[in-house]
Amino acid sequence: MIISKEKYWKNVRKEKCNNNSFLIYLDEICLRSDQGNDIKLTEQLADEVVREWNADGKIGTIKNNFYTKFSFSVIDITNKERKNVLSRLVDYGNCDPICYIADEPLKLHVKQTNLYDPLISWAEKFFSIQLNKGPGLLFVKQPLVNSGNIYNYLEKLDNFHITAIHELTKSLGSLFTCLALYKNIISPELAWEVANVEDNFRIEAWGQVEEETLIKNANFDHFKELVKLLKMI
Question: What is the pTM of this model?
Answer without folding.
Answer: 0.92
